[in-house]
Amino acid sequence: MGNVDNLTTNLKECNEEVRINVVEGLISSMSEELSALATNSYTVCIYRVSVKYRKSKEEAYTPRVVSVGPLHHGKIHLQAMEAYKLRYLQSFISKLGIGIDKLIKYAAKMEASVRGCYEDTSEFQSKEFLGNTKNEKQTPDCEQSRHLVEFLVFLHRPSSNRQQAPSGNGRCQYTISASQLHAAGVRFDHGMGELFEVSFNDKDGQLKLSQLTVNDETETFFRNLIAYEQCGHYEKHITSYIIFMDSLMKTAEDVDLLVKHGVIDNLLGESKLVATLFNNLCKEVMEEQKDFYFAEICNDLNKYSKTRIHKWNSKWFKWKLILKEKYFSNPWSFVAFLAASAVIVLTVVQTVCSILQTKNS
Predict the structure, then answer these.
(1) What interhelical angle do 218-231 and 271-281 show, nearest 10?
(2) What is this structure's pTM?
(3) In angstroms, rounded to a whole number, what is the distance separating the alpha carbons of residues 158 and 155?
């Protein structure tokens, strides 16, 4: 019996020792991961676009002509430019007056810091990595950004910060469409400043926005900036702008209204294409955005449109829009409506005449 008790005790001690080892191993592993995150997350500035963004439009995130850096190096459709890249390298070192050996040694010296700019470079060997990188500044700065996309994000930052109005339920309320705002008494005007120069005067109901030219490159441009903001430690200014414009342009009629007032310069042709473009840009973006740049303006617009007279005007416009889309989408529907209305009117007249005739007799 004593042997059984000793065996049970030994098993308990063994299990406890295993449990302690597992816990200590987990603590060590998590500490290493958190340490790496704390030291590397703010130096990373080159990311792989997440799967959810790529699924929406793969070609918007894929180089068409030339690859810069190791992420897309070796892809078949980009091979034609490799010879040109070597010519540019030759021209570059010729202008600097240095040999290729010095350039490669310098790149090797900077390999660790350059790798730190990438989200993940574990799959690239040093020889392959060094042959496809260029040293950049390590501190993000508006004037000394580390690559083109980061430069564009900094370039399009607003010159001033807005005081964000907190929302009661913790979620930001976006505005209604341009057509509904127009029906509620909002007047649109345009300027030629930066994208974020948007102002609303609740005294006269004027909403002023900077003019935006929409062309074949607009979608790719905004998709890359949005993806970059979502990956990095940046304020979501571009994302906020796209969400705001998407809330204004729900239909082709909204786009037509903004084109009429000079807010949109439509080079795509059909207004529906512009509305669809902005609607699609927001599909994968988190809507519960705590730092929504246009929160205060949206709140002001919503308050303005919900006053008694503006509210009824907006509802009446919405009803008209529903009637137009569902029942008067083509001329024959309208003709049928007129015919039915005429029959009803004639029936009522005939009924009234019959009643009057009966009373007289």
Answers:
(1) 10
(2) 0.66
(3) 9
